[in-house]
């Protein structure tokens, strides 16, 4: 559970903004979406490799 302490002169908008930022940093939504369907470890690894290949093709020329 996230706890946000609202300071004395702090507006609700500012506190809500801090809450949203803290919520995003914890990765809760990302984790919930990942848990909706099981992905085999081999498939997960394949996606990582394909993503790495894509990044090498896209950004590889910057290293020269």
Automatic annotation (TrEMBL):
Keywords noted in UniProt: Ribonucleoprotein, Ribosomal protein
Species, as recorded: Arundinibacter roseus
Protein name stated in the entry: Small ribosomal subunit protein bS21
Alphabetical list of InterPro entries matching this protein: Ribosomal_bS21, Ribosomal_bS21_sf
Superkingdom per UniProt: Bacteria
Listed Pfam families: Ribosomal_S21 (PF01165)
Gene Ontology molecular function: any one: structural constituent of ribosome
Family, similarity comment: Belongs to the bacterial ribosomal protein bS21 family.
Signal peptide segment: none
GO biological process assignments: translation
Statement: the UniProt record of this protein carries the keyword Ribosomal protein: yes
Recorded coiled-coil stretches: none
Entry's Gene Ontology cellular component terms: ribonucleoprotein complex; ribosome
């Amino acid at each position: 559970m996230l706890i946000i302490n609202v300071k004395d002169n702090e507006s609700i908008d500012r506190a809500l903004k801090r809450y949203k930022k803290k919520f995003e940093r914890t990765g809760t939504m990302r984790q919930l979406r990942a848990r909706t369907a099981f992905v085999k470890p081999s498939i997960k690894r394949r996606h990582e490799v394909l993503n790495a290949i894509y990044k090498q093709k896209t950004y590889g020329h910057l290293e020269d």
